[in-house]
């Protein structure tokens, strides 16, 4: 089979960076350089060109999808003769540790909130649905923090069910990266947004189907659109180690930080420690749980070592 035939059989249409950038059409740039800098995560390389060439076309596509979904929802209301609460459009953002999920989620939030109708766009990370450290320690799961079994999946599914049903407000737990734990009695409220972006390692994870056929088993069942951020393993390891070295001289210096002990490491010790954590935990999670979900995404953004998106794959309808 030749390459052209294989491409036609693929569930995705693949675009080079230049081809995707042309799909921006006349979408205006609504973010300033300072706003782009504000949404950029530690050690990421997001700049104005990346926003204009990658994320503006994506925001244009999502604006079309959201508008179409809203029309479909109104058509169903007319058919049923109901006046249900508005149904939020939910976007999932998945990918490995250190791949840039947080930056992607924040820049999408900023762009989508600048549409002419000024929709309410909320952002939620699934970190808040991790079990507290005390539970993880009791169950012997601290070395598997971030793996599917370390999350309170029933609570996350209840949260998404309530959001999709238009209930208000819906509360989600708050996670602190400083103390590396869920904060007791702290909540974020999601109050019927037009769009909700849900970012997390395993949001596209599939699980075992229920025997009775009744339960909704997957977080991704609630997504109207999903994005997977992709990069080679060696590149991800390099980014993780670089971020660890940066944090060693910044956030880890705070005595309240769970990782404060790492702030005293030498360069060589820090590289060795970060590489060990990556290989022992994050790489295993990537191979066993995260990477296998890549083909479940509606859009795949493939990054190069420069942190720039070089290829975009969009699932065919």
In words, what does this structure look like?
- This protein is α/β, with parallel strands linked by helices and 317 residues long.
- The chain contains nine helices and nine strands.
- The chain has a seven-stranded mixed β-sheet with strand order 1-9-8-7-2-6-3. A two-stranded antiparallel ribbon has the order 4-5.
- A hairpin with a 4-residue loop joins β4 (170-176) and β5.
- α4 packs across α5 and α8 (233-248) packs across α9.
Fill in the keyword field for this structure.
317 residues, globular, two-stranded antiparallel ribbon, single chain, alpha/beta, 9 strands, seven-stranded mixed beta sheet
Q: Write down how many β-strands occur, each being a DSSP E stretch of 2 or more residues.
A: 9
Unreliable segments of 5+ consecutive residues: none
Give the biggest beta sheet. 7 strands, mixed
Q: What's the alpha carbon Rg, rounded to whole Å?
A: 20 Å
Portion in helices: 25-40%
| Class by alpha and beta content | alpha/beta
How large a portion of the residues is in β-strands, by DSSP E? 15-25%
Spell out the helices and strands N to C: HEHHHEHEHHEEEEHHEE
Q: Rough shape?
A: globular
Q: Tally the helices: what do you get?
A: 9
In whole angstroms, how far apart are the ends? 23 Å
Q: Mean of the pLDDT scores? A: 91
Strand order, sheet with most strands:
1-9-8-7-2-6-3
């Amino acid at each position: 089979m030749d390459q052209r035939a294989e491409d036609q059989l693929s569930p995705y249409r693949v675009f080079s960076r230049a081809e995707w950038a042309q799909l921006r059409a006349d979408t205006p740039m609504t973010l300033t350089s300072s706003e782009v800098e504000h949404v950029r995560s530690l050690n990421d390389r997001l700049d104005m060109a990346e926003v204009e060439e990658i994320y503006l076309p994506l925001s244009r596509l999502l604006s079309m999808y959201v508008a179409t979904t809203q029309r479909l929802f109104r058509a169903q209301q007319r058919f049923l003769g109901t006046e249900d609460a508005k149904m939020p459009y939910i976007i999932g953002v998945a990918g490995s540790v250190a791949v840039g999920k947080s930056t992607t989620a924040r820049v999408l939030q900023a762009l989508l909130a600048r549409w002419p109708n000024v929709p309410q766009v909320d952002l939620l990370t699934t970190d808040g649905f991790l079990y507290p450290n005390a539970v993880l320690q009791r169950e012997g799961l601290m070395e598997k923090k971030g793996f599917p079994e370390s999350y309170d999946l029933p609570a996350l599914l209840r949260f998404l069910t309530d959001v999709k049903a238009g209930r208000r407000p819906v509360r989600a737990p708050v996670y602190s990266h400083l103390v590396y734990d869920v904060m007791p009695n702290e909540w974020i409220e999601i109050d019927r947004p037009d769009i909700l972006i849900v970012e997390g390692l395993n949001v596209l994870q599939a699980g075992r189907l229920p025997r009775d056929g009744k339960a909704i088993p997957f977080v991704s069942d609630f997504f109207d659109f999903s994005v997977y951020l992709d990069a080679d393993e060696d590149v991800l390891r390099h980014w993780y180690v670089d971020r660890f070295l940066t944090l060693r001289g910044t956030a880890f210096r705070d005595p309240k930080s769970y990782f404060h002990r790492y702030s005293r490491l030498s360069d060589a010790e820090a590289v060795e420690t970060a590489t060990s954590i990556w290989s022992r935990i994050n790489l295993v999670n990537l191979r066993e749980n995260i990477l296998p979900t890549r083909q479940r995404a509606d859009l795949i953004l493939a990054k190069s070592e420069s942190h720039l998106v070089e290829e975009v794959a969009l699932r065919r309808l």
